[in-house]
């Protein structure tokens, strides 16, 4: 399920991007239909890591208004280079070190990988200074793989209870990376775990904390994620084409 086999051809024109985006949207709609969900309940977040500025301009022209990036410096650099494109929003979806939090506070609209209070604290302080707010998702390690970032599921509730102290952070829900496997019987339980956790937390979420979002599913497994309740799918290679950088660059194991 993972890897180049699920990637589209390398998109190099606006037409390519229109085509790939439409085909991913069709797959989203089909997955929704199979479980009686409304396709508008799923947000497609195109993931643009390793894609250069020139191709991102084409993706923008094809309709992308939000881009996900794993690495903060790469994201900040692109945000600056593309600042002339109206309405383009940036989502940081990778692990964040505290010393980079100030960069995120400056340009990002969303951060999907919150898993430490220290990061929440530094982010909040920098956001206050910038007069900005930030949508955040709490990252959960649902696969038990040591190479994955995120909190163990059993620690999430206590963690979330601390978050109202950070008033610049708008908590929206949870994010996970499933096990990297071609076997749906290994992947699906990760998605189920995240949904069940979200449902449980939603019952008595602290004031100001929303527990609606479930960010789960990538090029290789987004349809499965949708059937298990994903509200955001993070899709790179099925839109942009295969990446040369191995996944171990993003999830060192
Ligand atoms: C790269 C990445 C994705 C997208 O992966 P693809 O295989 O390109 O669809 C999703 N989530 C995170 C956190 C990523 O770093």
From TrEMBL:
Q: Which residues carry this modification: N6-(pyridoxal phosphate)lysine?
A: 49
**InterPro entries (UniProt xref):** Ala_racemase_N (IPR001608), PLP-binding_barrel (IPR029066), PyrdxlP_homeostasis (IPR011078)
- Signal peptide per UniProt: none
State the Gene Ontology terms under molecular function: pyridoxal phosphate binding
Q: Which cofactor does it need?
A: pyridoxal 5'-phosphate
For the keyword GTP-binding, the answer is no
The record's annotation in SUPFAM superfamilies points to: PLP-binding barrel
- Please give the Gene3D superfamilies that the UniProt record associates with this protein: Alanine racemase
Keywords linked to the UniProt accession: Pyridoxal phosphate
Instruction: Write down the CDD domains for this protein, in alphabetical order.
Output: PLPDE_III_YBL036c_like (cd00635)
Alanine racemase N-terminal domain segment(s): 22-242
Q: Which family does it belong to?
A: Belongs to the pyridoxal phosphate-binding protein YggS/PROSC family.
Q: What PANTHER family does the annotation carry?
A: PROLINE SYNTHETASE CO-TRANSCRIBED BACTERIAL HOMOLOG PROTEIN (PTHR10146), PYRIDOXAL PHOSPHATE HOMEOSTASIS PROTEIN (PTHR10146:SF14)
Q: What does this protein do?
A: Pyridoxal 5'-phosphate (PLP)-binding protein, which is involved in PLP homeostasis.
Which HAMAP family does the entry link to?
PLP_homeostasis
**What is the designated name of this protein?**
Pyridoxal phosphate homeostasis protein
Task: Write the lineage as a comma-separated list.
Answer: Bacteria, Pseudomonadati, Pseudomonadota, Gammaproteobacteria, Lysobacterales
């Amino acid at each position: 399920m993972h890897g180049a086999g699920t990637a589209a051809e390398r998109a190099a024109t606006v037409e390519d991007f229109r085509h790939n985006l439409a085909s991913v949207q069709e797959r989203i709609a089909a997955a929704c239909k199979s479980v009686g969900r409304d396709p508008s309940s799923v947000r497609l977040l195109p993931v643009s890591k390793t894609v250069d500025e020139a191709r991102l301009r084409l993706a923008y022209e094809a309709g992308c208004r939000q881009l996900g990036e794993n690495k903060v410096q790469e994201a900040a650099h692109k945000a600056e280079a593309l600042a002339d494109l109206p309405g383009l929003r940036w989502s940081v979806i990778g692990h964040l070190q505290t010393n980079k939090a100030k960069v995120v506070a400056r340009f990002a609209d969303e951060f999907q990988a919150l898993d430490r209070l220290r990061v929440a604290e530094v982010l909040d302080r920098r956001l206050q200074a910038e007069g900005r707010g930030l949508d955040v998702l709490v990252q959960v390690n649902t696969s038990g793989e040591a190479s994955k970032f995120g909190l163990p599921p059993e620690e999430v509730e206590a963690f979330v209870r601390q978050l109202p102290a950070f008033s610049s952070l708008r908590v929206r829900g949870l994010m996970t990376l499933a096990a990297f496997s071609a076997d749906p019987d290994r992947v699906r339980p990760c998605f189920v775990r995240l949904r069940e956790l979200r449902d449980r937390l939603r019952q008595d979420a602290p004031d100001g904390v929303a527990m609606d979002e479930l960010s789960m599913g990538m090029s290789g497994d987004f349809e499965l994620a949708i059937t298990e309740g994903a509200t955001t799918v993070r899709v790179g290679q099925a839109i942009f084409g295969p990446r040369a950088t191995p996944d171990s660059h993003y999830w060192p194991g």
